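Sequence only, no structure available. Ideas?
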Amino acid sequence: MKSVLFFIGYMGSGKTHAILKMAEMNRFETVDLDRAIEQHKGMSIEEIFDQEGEASFRAMEMRMLKHLVISEGIRVIGCGGGTPCIAGALDWMKAKGHVVHLSPPFEVIERRLFATNAPHRPLLMNANGGKKSAEEVKRHWVSRNACYADADERLLKEPGKEDFKRWELLLSESGSD
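Reply:
I predicted one. Tokens follow.
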């Protein structure tokens, strides 16, 4: 069976950067799960959350993840921050490949999420439509870390060249395209 490399972690942890770097370095097709859902639905994640709710989005997220791996043969996937929190999702990913938890310190995530040019994220908004405080986001980050705890690997720093080469080797050893 061909192995899949899954990047998981909180919003702003660097999952999209990691899959873009993997795409630059090797021959394996990469997909950002949130972007794949947006393309499929023709709506932004924010619009899906607003119109269909988080529960519907999570079900769609799991269906798309399975489709990308089983039907499309994608080998490198940057998952949404909540993907591993879906019941059974992390176990399914681990059965299909290698799961890397990108886990920079909260201060790094906070800086990225609250930057003026940061993308709009529905889970950063409170019920009144305003942005959540850093304290609220940190509480959510702490709770989400429980979903990531059983990943195959936890990286506490920005991935370096040696990490990407190791992951490329892992994919190459599990079967080529």
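DSSP finds eight helices and five strands in the chain.
Hope that gets you unstuck.
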